[in-house]
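call fold(seq) -> C-alpha cells
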Amino acid sequence: MSNEVSMEKVIEILKQNVVGLDKINIEAETPLISSGLVESIDFIEILCVIEREFDVKLQLDMLDFANLENAKLISIMISDAISQKEKVG
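ret:
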C-alpha cells in the first residue's frame, strides 16, 4: 500500500480551511507562509483537519514551518506520519 498523499488532496484541504485560498490558484510549490497566504493560526485548524482526515498524530518534530511552506512539503509530512503510524502498529 502506498503511503503517498496526493498534493491535490492537500490543496483541497487548504482551500476548504483557509479563508480566501479558494479564490487562488494553489500549486504544489506555491509558498504559503512566506507569501502571507496562510497565517500561523490557520495551520492550527489545518493540522487538526489533517490528523482527522488521515487518522494520524503529527509528531512535534514534524511541526516545523519549513514542512508547512507548500502543498508538496505538507504532502510529504503527512506521508511520513502515515509511514510512522504503520511501523508502530
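The helical segments are 7-17, 40-54, 71-88.
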